[in-house]
Each structure stands twice: as structure tokens, then as C-alpha cells.
Amino acid sequence: MANIRDVAKQAGVSVTTVSRVLNDHPYVTEEKRLAVEKAMEELGYYQNINAIHLSKGETRLIGVAVPFINHSYFSTLLNGIADQALVRDYNLVFYQTNYQEQEERKALEALKRKQVDGLLILSRASGWEAVDEYQEFGPIVVCESSNHTRIPCVSVDHYEAFRFGMRYMIQKGHRHIGYCIGRMNGTNSNLREMAYCEELEFIEEPYRKDWVFNNCLTIEDGKRVANEYMSLEERPSALLITSDQVAAGFRMEAEKQGIRVPADVAILGFDNHPIAEALDLTTIELPLHEVGMSLVEKVSSKNPTSAIYPFELVERGSV
Amino acid sequence: MANIRDVAKQAGVSVTTVSRVLNDHPYVTEEKRLAVEKAMEELGYYQNINAIHLSKGETRLIGVAVPFINHSYFSTLLNGIADQALVRDYNLVFYQTNYQEQEERKALEALKRKQVDGLLILSRASGWEAVDEYQEFGPIVVCESSNHTRIPCVSVDHYEAFRFGMRYMIQKGHRHIGYCIGRMNGTNSNLREMAYCEELEFIEEPYRKDWVFNNCLTIEDGKRVANEYMSLEERPSALLITSDQVAAGFRMEAEKQGIRVPADVAILGFDNHPIAEALDLTTIELPLHEVGMSLVEKVSSKNPTSAIYPFELVERGSV
DNA sequence: TTGTATGCGTTATCAT
DNA sequence: ATGATAACGCATACAA
């Protein structure tokens, strides 16, 4: 592979001049520029990007740590991230963490070792301290409802969204309300739990453990919940469900088994994924594509700030 | 940022020795190793990965060009790719091309400029020549049914899968068969078209342009097709549909409008996505996760070969 | 077992 | 307007 020195020699100029034409710098005569271009052509020259990275100390790469990709919540975020990265001329390197701290650490190390200029964490298993520890090595933005003052977060306010959903159900006359959650111990899940408990307290209803369904991420999980729901002695009349995917699985399975939505049980999803419209699911729309774009904006600034995006109720026929 | 020379000086050894302990090379006394480790600790040293890349001439990065990510076909492939990349200690850089030749070119250029050691193309708008042109710069594997002898392909045999689907419908007594396609001019779409025409000829039925539905990628597209279907003067009794997503949209909308599946129209999806089970969709299962893993295996070998993965009929209640 | 010197390919500083 | 030279940080052939 021909390098910049070969080109310089071939063109009868210095490497500096070659570098100048490469980077469209001023102060190079048309004559020399042509000579350089001719030499590049002849030698089949192209720049080695690693050398540029080393020399410049930046890679125009943004790392994205995501638990798994084949999940509409994350892939929608990623779509927004990719769109904005394109605009800002960044490329993306992708770390599938599967909620393993060890894999999240790899992404953080990549930032430290200058593989990427910044890091986006879409969800995490590691504690805040682990993340905080790496902030000195470059901008990090987390996609979570912010309650950490030192780490920039861009997200929807999951706490408020969930509380809004609860109040909506209450206003519709429901008092026996259950809910589904993605995984225990996630930040967003904790916020939902908190909102749930507070609203329950508000209407003076007890917390019933068997009305809380854990590990709900996929359509299949929704089906599973439907079956668990049916085997309940006492059933809630309303359910707030992790996502539209899970809500869809729930609705399809429940109706197959003769449960009527919303007559027997009202359900509310989150995201406003196309599947929600197809299944006539009332849902709380989260602007995930926008959040994704915002994440890239934030991480590409020297001092990222936090931002919270609004949600919106989309009323359909499941409540 | 402390570099390897600083560590060497601090430890009172040469850079070579430091490099040796960094890379677990033999021939370094325990004493010096300790001194080096101590120095690294004191200076807060860590390796700069770009320097390693430049020096070694490899990045352990694999590029993945994908039209868009928020689509279950691609995100399932990507999930397999990421899983296998993890095993083989590769990271992934992600190029969202949106079927723009210009963006695909960027991914190819990244290979040429040594940003990535190999490139995976999940689907493309560019011609074979454009891809072929870059093969000299590193391994490229395309996720398509192979008919190009020079470019390695790993995929499901979409032609055979579609033909199999046609024969299945025919065997079920259908003679008026239509189909949905993702986009015209895609390799896989062309193969499906070919299989469709051949089987039509086989049963001596005419090709009816209004029974072929283009641009079908999402649930919404399925709904649209259902409406187009209903406005048809003469309707086919069976439909082969791009993917389970589209088939799901079709079924939901059609049934909402009083069309019975499979009594009025039999439908067959592809992929065996969870939504297919939820909606009782007969489908042709494609081992996309495996294909994804295989893509990484192939691209990480010096001379990638092609491979075709088998499909499997999953009979449910939509045919 | 250890160190010296050179290569990797580019950008940036500074002098001219 | 142009060029010599020093970074950038690491790996490695070769010598010792």
C-alpha cells in the first residue's frame, strides 16, 4: 500500500504538500496540486484511517452499548442514533452487552483507550460509579430518566409517563391495577415501580405482588402473562404493560382464551410501535427516534447536558 | 496521557520490555514485570488502541452495512452477528445505508482505508461490480442467495424457499396466488419473482400484475396490502407474504374488515418471527440468527466461502 | 533475557 | 507557498 511519502516522492513535493491537498488546505499552487493528484492516481493511493486517528487523537466513532439489538425499543433508538450520526459524520461502533457488566466494561474501556470519541449507554447493568469512573476519558450519555447529577442522561421521563398511565386508568374507573415490567432493578423499572406504589397509595389500594409481572420484554412474554393472568384467583381490571410488544402478546393470547379487552381487562402499552395501531392498543407514545437523535447530539458536544423528552397518550380501543 | 515510553522510563526498562509485559510475551523476569506493572499503576497507563491498530495493521473491527436497523429481519441477523463477534473477539461498526449507494460506498471505503478488517453487507442497492472492486482490500461477505461466483455469500436460499411456499399453496389446492415483495430489484426479491413466475407457469396460470404487491416491509405495509386486496375485482385465494411482520399486518387488518384467514385467503409468511406464533401464522422459518453467526465466521477467515442455510415450513393456521 | 532502532501513515509546528 | 522534522503510541526485527 502506497503511503503519503511515496506520493510525495512521485510528485516531487514534500509530504506536507501532499497532506495539504489531502485536507483541502490553502497555500498550494494549482500546479503542485495537480502533480499530487496525478501521483495519487498512479499509485492507487488512499489514506490509512488509523494513522489519521492516531495523529489527530480522535476517531469520529461513537460507541453504543445496548443490551440486545433485536428488540424494538432499542432498534428504534438505534435508528435515531444512526440517522443523527450520519448527519454529524460519525460512525457507530456497537457493543451488545446482554446486560453483562463485563461487556459494558468493554465499551467503557473502548472509550478510555480512544477507540471511540464518546459513548452512549442505552441501558445498563453496571452501577453509576462504574460509569462515572470513565467520564474523564470522554463524553458519556446514558439513555435513562435522569437522577444522577454528574452523568448526562437523555430519555423520556418514565416515572411521569407511568404515573400518567396510572392516573388515566384510575380516571377510567379502575382501582384494581396491575403492571408488567421489563426486568427488576433497571432504572426505568424502578421508576415505574415507584410511580405504581405512589398511585396505589393515592387510591388507597394495597400492593399485590401477584399483580406485578416481571421479565416482560417480548410478544411471547405477553402471552405468558396472559396465561398467568387467567390463572389468578382475583384479577386486576387494568394492566399497564411494559411495551406495545408485550401488550400485543397479551391481547392476542387473552382474546384467544376468551378474555375481552377492554371489557374484562383494560390494557395500556408504551412506545406507540406500529403493532399498537394494528392491534388497536391504547398506548403512551415515546419519541424514541428523537431521543436517539438527541443522544448523538449530546455526546458529540464537549459538555453534554441532560434532556427529558415528552410522552403522549394515544387513545385507542384497549382501555 | 502517559505512553509506553513514560512507563519504560519510570520502570527503568526499555519500551520493548513494557510491550512484552503488555502482550504477555515470554522472556521477561518476574522482577522487571513487577516494576513495569508498578509503573503502569503509578502513571495510570493504558494502551492507545489506535496506535496498536496502526502498528499491527488490523483493527479487529468488522463493518456491517445494513439498510436500516429497526426491522426484525435485519435486527435478528445483527443479533447473530453480534453474538458471534463476541465469541471471536471482534467489535462491530455499523453503517446504516438506507439503500443509498453513497452510504454503501462509505462502508466499502472504510474497508479500503483499513477502518475495518472485513465487511458484511446485509442487503444492498449497489451493483455487484461496486462490491467486487473492493474485494482486494479485505474479506467481504454478502447476505444473499449466492449466484455471484466471486463474492462470498451466506444466506438462506430465498429462491427455493419461495418455490417451496408456492408448491405448498398449490398442493393445498390454490391456483390463484399472489405475493408481496420487499422492494423491487433486490436480489432476494428478484429470486422470489423468478420462483413465482416459474411455478405459475407450472400450473399454467397467468401472471397478474395486480396480485403482486410491492414495497412491503412493515406491519403497516401489511395493513395497506389488506386494503388493496379488498378493493380487487378478482382476488387471489392465497398470498405469499414478504415476512411475518407484513403477514401479521395483513391478517389483522383483513380480519378486522371481515375477511377470514385462511377461509377467504390463505397466507404464508417468512422468518418465523414470534409474531407469527402469536397470530397463528403459517410461515417458512429462516435461521437468521445462525446466518448472522455464520457471516462473522466467514468474514473472519482469510478466504471466505459461501454457504446456504436451510429453511423449514412451520404449519399453523393461516393456510 | 533485554535493549536499540525502525516502521506503521498521518498531521502539525515552525522555519524559510 | 513549501518543506524538514517532530509528534502520535505501539510493535517488532535484530543485535547483544
TrEMBL record, chains A, B:
Keyword Transferase: no
Keywords carried by this UniProt record: DNA-binding, Transcription, Transcription regulation
One Pfam family in the UniProt entry: LacI
SUPFAM superfamilies attached to this UniProt entry: lambda repressor-like DNA-binding domains (SSF47413), Periplasmic binding protein-like I (SSF53822)
Domain HTH lacI-type span(s) in chain numbering: 2-56
Cited InterPro entries: HTH_LacI (IPR000843), Lambda_DNA-bd_dom_sf (IPR010982), Peripla_BP/Lac1_sug-bd_dom (IPR001761), Peripla_BP_I (IPR028082)
Entry protein name: LacI family transcriptional regulator
Protein's organism: Pontibacillus salipaludis
